[in-house]
Amino acid sequence: VQSEALRRTLEGVHVAISAGGTREPLDPVRFIGNRSSGKQGYALARVAAQRGARVTLVAGNTADLTTPAGVDLVRVGSAVELREAMHKVAADADVVVMAAAVADFRPLSLTGHKIKKTSADPDPIALTKNPDILVELVSARREGQVIVGFAAETGDETTSVLDYGRAKLHRKGCDLLVVNAVGDGKAFEQEDNAGWLLTREGAETPIPHGPKTQVASVVWDAVTARLTESQ
Ligand code: CTP
Ligand code: CA
Q1: Phi, psi angle pair for 168, to nearest 5°
Q2: Is the ipTM of this complex over 0.85?
Q3: 43, 74, 189, 210: most buried, per Cβ within 10 A?
């Protein structure tokens, strides 16, 4: 978009963005994964690069997406690999955005060979918790660094999407949280996205339904405002 190219508001800013889903290996050929396409993370990377940022994109499994022009791509598989890559990149970044869909659990043990079927019933898969990368990045935060999280939520009988989002923002300790309502064909694998942008100070901005680049623009506008304030 031409208007984006004219807003070089992230010139001289290094941003680290995670995108896509992690794959948690069971054996050399199998994994537990999720349906994240990586599109929102790639849209964030594209818009940031258009605005003049230096962009490092740490990507797990994604749909067949083209790396945006001028973006450094780091490929990862599991959550543990994503964690290591993000810590490395974040140590040098002014802004960190966790748009990746990180598996909450991974198989407790990784079998070095392909698991064979036998006549016996299979063993259940024992799982263990993955580290919360966003929480770790918040505790390792550099002076003035802006940290953004994403949350895909469905509401239920007792709690709305927005209430879950508010609670998550406080739990994670990030500066901004993008909350998307999911379910009913919303968000996952879609071109469009909508939701709210929450700030740690309690501001809540609805993000209109639109392309993921539009969501990205809203996020970068808010990030730029915070970077300017802290200068
Ligand atoms: N996230 C992370 N590390 C994890 C899990 C999540 O860094 N192990 C990040 C995601 O990239 C996202 C934010 O945390 O930016 C929220 O992810 P979400 O899955 O919504 O939060 P959880 O704390 O895992 O809570 P839930 O039980 O709702 O899945
Ligand atoms: Ca989760």
Answers
A1: -65, -40
A2: yes
A3: 43
